[in-house]
């Protein structure tokens, strides 16, 4: 029976993905910074572990507790919406610590077991911001674009060892906790010179028809985890699929 470890399972894409794989009979290691046993139905195939992808000891503890896994999904991420001029560089570094270096650290931690077995899959979740430019998310886009390049290169590097590497590119997800999880990080990032422009951007997002739902991402991750072809990119959600087709 296959085992998948998913980061960032407290809500949104990670939670939906954990449920999706449980429903299909996999062993699931659902990780989050503050573990909650009530988020998913009890199952002998489910373990909920504490994991902060910005903390080396937390990563080591979680990987050891998880034991052998077949698939790693790097879904944990944070966002920031606002004018880059108003974004403190400490906030930019915070984005990279979780979105970019956290992903790299998790891959670094599991590669030895994958290489030793000559099998395994690394699935990194980025964003449709890598498919087309979006305003007011410059720092966030940079952190995700770094993961995009890292993953594409890694796919070549690990192919001789039988390790599959995949990219999930979700579209705009209004029913995730992107803004809520931003919290204090996003306060003050829309300063007066950018206020009118920001309002027009927010109004445009309010008119978006096709959006991405957590289940869209869960299904894309399922396809990536079970696909033995050499496909690298998996856009998730109708809007992301449209952007990928136009790029």
Textual characterization of the structure:
The chain is an alpha/beta fold and 247 residues long. The protein has a single domain, classed as NAD(P)-binding Rossmann-like Domain (Rossmann fold, 3-Layer(aba) Sandwich), CATH 3.40.50.720. It is built from eight helices and seven strands. It has helices spanning 12-23, 56-66, 89-117, 138-158, 178-182, 192-206, 214-226, 238-246, and strands at 3-6, 27-32, 46-50, 71-74, 120-125, 163-170, 233-236. α4 links the parallel β5 (120-125) and β6. α1 packs across α7.
Write down the secondary-structure element order: EHEEHEHEHEHHHEH
Strand order across the largest sheet: 3-2-1-4-5-6-7
Shape estimate: globular
| Annotated CATH architecture | 3-Layer(aba) Sandwich
Query: By helix and strand content, what is the structural category?
Result: alpha/beta
Largest pleated sheet: 7 strands, parallel
Taking the alpha carbons of the first and last residues, their distance comes to 38 Å
Radius of gyration of CA atoms, rounded to a whole number: 18 Å
CATH class term: Alpha Beta
What is the mean predicted local confidence, pLDDT? 92
Total domain count: 1
Number of helices: 8
Low-pLDDT stretches: none
The CATH homologous superfamily is termed NAD(P)-binding Rossmann-like Domain
What fraction of the residues are assigned to beta strands by DSSP?
5-15%
What share of residues is helical? 40-55%
Number of strands: 7
The CATH topology is: Rossmann fold
């Amino acid at each position: 029976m296959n085992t998948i470890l998913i980061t960032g399972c407290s809500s949104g894409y990670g939670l939906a993905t954990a449920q999706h794989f449980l429903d299909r009979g996999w062993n699931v290691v659902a990780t989050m910074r503050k573990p909650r046993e009530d988020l998913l139905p009890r199952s002998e195939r489910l373990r909920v572990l504490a994991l902060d992808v910005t903390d080396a000891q937390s990563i080591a503890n979680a990987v050891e507790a998880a034991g052998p896994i077949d698939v790693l999904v790097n879904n944990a991420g944070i966002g920031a919406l606002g004018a880059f001029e108003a974004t403190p560089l400490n906030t930019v570094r915070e984005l990279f610590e979780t979105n970019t270096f956290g992903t790299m650290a998790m891959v670094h931690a599991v590669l030895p077991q994958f290489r030793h077995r000559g099998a395994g899959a690394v699935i990194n979740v980025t964003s449709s911001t890598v498919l087309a430019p979006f305003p007011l998310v410059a720092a966030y886009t940079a952190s995700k674009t770094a993961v995009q390049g890292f993953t594409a290169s890694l796919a070549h590097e690990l192919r001789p060892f039988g390790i599959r590497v995949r990219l999930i590119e979700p579209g705009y997800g209004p029913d995730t906790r992107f803004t809520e999880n931003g919290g204090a990080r996003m306060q003050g990032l829309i300063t007066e010179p950018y206020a009118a422009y920001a309002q027009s951007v927010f109004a445009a997002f309010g008119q978006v028809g096709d959006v991405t739902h957590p289940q869209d991402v869960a299904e894309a991750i399922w396809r990536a985890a079970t696909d033995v072809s050499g496909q690298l990119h998996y856009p998730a959600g109708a809007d992301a699929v449209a952007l990928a087709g136009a790029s």
